[in-house]
């Protein structure tokens, strides 16, 4: 199913992160819209993955702003 963080936005709406699973879930749509190979998108998501804070708190996540900047660079 759909990752929970994609259903429930952060309370402030300001957190630029989504879960690693959430990013992968959307990767097919992103690759289609940006006309990029799905493997390229997956590799970029893996490259930008941020470990949980102190290695234990929370889950692996992706900064969406960083991902979009990196995707923009690939397309140009």
Q: How would you describe this structure in keywords?
A:
single chain, 76 residues, two-stranded antiparallel ribbon, 4 helices, 2 strands
| Sheet/helix structural class | mainly alpha
What proportion of the residues is helical, as a percent range?
A: 40-55%
Number of helices: 4
The number of strands is 2
The proportion of strand residues reads 5-15%
User: How many strands, which pairing sense, and closed or not: the largest β-sheet?
Assistant: 2 strands, antiparallel
Mean of residue pLDDT values: 88
Multimeric organization: single chain
The neighbouring-strand order within the major sheet is 1-2
Strand/helix succession: HEHHEH
- Distance from first to last alpha carbon: 33 Å
Spatial shape? globular
Give the uncertain stretches in residue-range form: none
Over all CA atoms, what is the radius of gyration?
13 Å
